[in-house]
Hints:
Elements: H1 3-29, E1 39-41, H2 46-53, H3 57-72, H4 75-84, H5 90-111, E2 115-117, H6 118-142, H7 145-169
Parallel strand pairs: 1-2
Helix pairs in contact: 1-4, 1-7, 3-6, 4-5, 4-6, 5-6, 6-7
Amino acid sequence: MNKRARIKTVFLYGVFICYILLLIKILLLSRTSHSELTSINLIPFYSIKEYIFSNSATIKKFAYGNVIGNIVIFIPLGTYLSLLKNDKRVITNLVVIFIVSLFVEIIQGVLGIGASDIDDIILNCLGGLIGILGYKFLLFILRDEKKVHTAITILSAMGLPLILFYLFMMRMKF
């Protein structure tokens, strides 16, 4: 591996670590522990259905943020797993995303922070799948893994200031 490729790889791992720290902050450290707000839902699509059929504008606004947020926050994980792991199979990376999401939901339930919801796992996996498919799409378009590596490095460099802002500057309490 030449010096330039090593620098790109170290940079990508650095951004990936910052992203993981941001995930931990958003999903575990920014939550408040209130027993009256803690809930566990094991019925698939129950929360999403409740959001869709609610008449409350406040609930719909919260639902939109929750659904979109749960998808978007895991898109980079799918992309980075596809890029950084040797095993590039979709199912393998999706299983890793499922395990990470399940682990987060279990911790939220055990510690009583936020709500543990099977729908969050489904939405997180959907986001991860979008990231995996985005990587595959770039590979299809660019037809060279080194070019995909470069493209994701550029996208990571553009996203790094936002990650760092949310990681160190922004106070989040949900």
